[in-house]
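yo, ArsA family ATPase is done. seq:
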Amino acid sequence: MTRVLLVTGTGGAGRTTVAAATAAAAARAGTRTLLLAADGTADAETVLGVALGSEPVEVEPRFFAARVAVREEFEREFLLVQDQLRGVLALIGVDPLDPEEITAVPGAADALALRVLARHAGAAEDPSGPAPRPLWDLIVVDLPPVDRTALALALPESLARYLDRLLPVERQAARALRPVLAAVAGVPMPDEWLYETARRVIGELDAVRAVLDAPGTSVRLVTRSGAVAAATDRRAAAALALYGRRVDDVIVNAVPHGATLPRERGTSLRALFPGAGVAAVGAADDEPLGSDALAEFAESLPPVPGVALPGEASDALGGTESYGPFGVEADGERLVLVVPLPGAERGDLDLLRRGDELVVTVGAHRRLIPLPSALRRCTIEGAGLRGGMLRVRFVPDPAVWMRT
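structure:
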């Protein structure tokens, strides 16, 4: 199984340097590693001193790097859809766009980056050796600042839900009746290309979700000391927890020379990210550039858990299998839905029940949580936020609970 480490954090905290150093150190330890530059900048090229393209290039033995070519990815996707619409465009007299006219829309980069990640994580196995192995043991992804990253990580689930509402599977079965319905009842039915496009997109979204939800995928958060970074960390903790993303460790980068991480800051970070390690990295005299400097810088970083070296068995990631966005507890006749939301504040929290789903909003982030079958037959009695845990109390609905 390929281990995936998503590196994000506070803007300007040194995410790219930490990501590149993590990848370089893992490769020198014998791990076949890919660094995927997905933050939309050329910073990784500057840090590595190597020109990157959409295909992995070898930086040094076992260390490869690639970037997300947003324009090329968007152009390929747009032209594919345009080709499917060619007949409609010709019918209404609209000329199709040429490739050089196409520009990526805002926000497309993050969605395309996740698709490229899924493509690399699902790369063909290496047939060399006695038993086939994944092409990469570790993929380190250099992502944008955490506010953008949290929204991007929620995108596959949201898009899959929207597509299911617009083109549910049961309606696809009715497309064979399209000519009959159109002739007899005058009911318009979508063309076949729409269903084919939906199936393809859903397949790609499922692949992305499989990578993001895999036990071997986690977050390495890079931050700084100071009040502004602390406020960003609080928002990040709530957003990542809401979407069920596990944070392995928090790197407090560029702590001033001769200083140590304040105890209150360390305690706060451990409370915001339960189970994550917290490491402080001192400010460097010179910016680490190139593989040698990055590997030296990585000596101050904690090792990546769950990465198997050649010939070794992969260690289990403690608690990963049971990690999820919510749990259900019994409290007498009540059932309590427990949603971890460290860092969330009451003023930013909003709850709404919509049918069999609970809509949880924390600031700019929202998730629709499908209710377990037992809670669907209950009504909400109340809710409270304490100690980083949102607890929603449900009581049985007599109208449906014991229906015969």
